[in-house]
Every structure is written in C-alpha cells, then in structure tokens.
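ok so heres the complex, two chains, lmk if somethin looks off
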Amino acid sequence: GQSLEQPSEVTAVEGAIVQINCTYQTSGFYGLSWYQQHDGGAPTFLSYNALDGLEETGRFSSFLSRSDSYGYLLLQELQMKDSASYFCAVTDSNYQLIWGAGTKLIIKP
Amino acid sequence: DSGVTQTPKHLITATGQRVTLRCSPRSGDLSVYWYQQSLDQGLQFLIQYYNGEERAKGNILERFSAQQFPDLHSELNLSSLELGDSALYFCASSVAQGANRNTIYFGEGSWLTVV
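and the predicted structre for the whole thing:
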C-alpha cells in the first residue's frame, strides 16, 4: 500500500527553527508537497519539490531526497501564527495526491 | 480567498437524513476533489471529477455520491447519515486532470454535524 509517515506533533519555541519530517512509500513519485492548515481552516499550499535538494520560500524551506524517499519542511524564525497542522503529500504515478496524517506544530512563547 | 466556494458553511442534521454539499471551483479549473476531515484527523480523499467525469475514487462510502455538472460545479450527496459522518468536508480544485505540482486549492469547507 501507499503510505506517508510524519510525526503527529512537534513543539517548538517562538523564534526557533523546527523541522517536520516526512517519509513516503508510494506507487511512483512525481513530487512532494507541503500544505498548512490552521484549526478550522482550509489547507493552503506551501511548497513543492520534484527534484532533490532544498527549496526556499521566505522563512519556509522544503527538502527532498528521492533516493531516501524522504523530505522535510523547515520553518525558521517561528512565529505564533505558524501554529498549525502541516501535511506532506506525494503525487503518485497516477497524478493523485497521497496525504500524510499531518503534524500539529505547537509553538510556545 | 482560494476562489473555491463551498455551501453551506455549516449544517446540522439528524441521523438517517440526506444532505447535499455544493462546490464551485476556481474559474478555469476543471478538476474538483472532495475530502472528509473528522475532528483532529487527516484529510481523507473521497472522489475526484475532471470535466464532468469521475477521475479517481478514494475511501468514499456507498452512502455517499458525487457529480460534476456541465458548468463544472460539483455536489456531494451524503445519505442515511450516521453520527460518524460528522466532519468537515472540503472541496478543492485544480486546472489539470492530475495534481500537477500538487497545487490544488481548497475551499473553506462545509461543517456537517449529525445529531
């Protein structure tokens, strides 16, 4: 079967750096995406990696290693507003999104 | 604002009833996806339509059905409702048939409470 593994919860301090990992096992792979979802809100797209390496978008960066079937989302200079759930998702060989269960990021002042 | 519109935003109904959730995709998007999210749970993919045709099916119960109309809006029909169907139902849309670059855009969701 297809699966994505990510930690259920991560806690960090405001102003710090946090990394959310995602490992996947899917039928084919076109890319790894990250979405952010605040409580009661809609998921919103953060980043996409199709090739190995680091993609940076402001305070957020996303990394992919296809050989390790692994990626991570790096959040720097954490702000309270970054408290949310973060989902990784893989585009499989049928161009379908396979979702992880989500990581709840708790930020403490 | 993602451009995806869902109605109603909130709905309370009794067990055994039937409801219809409506979704208007972003202008120009041909694909519509439906997801279910129970409290503090992940996103469960239900079904996808592309330009009026069913494209992919996920963990959708037989009591649930969906369709996409010629004007590309979509409806999700939930029948014989059970308490466990209480959830946030998201509609999402994308331009392409497949989730190219995974940029799909979500609506704000429809909160369904079954009592």
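quick notes: Chain B touches chain A through 23 residues (CB under 8 Å). thats all i got rn
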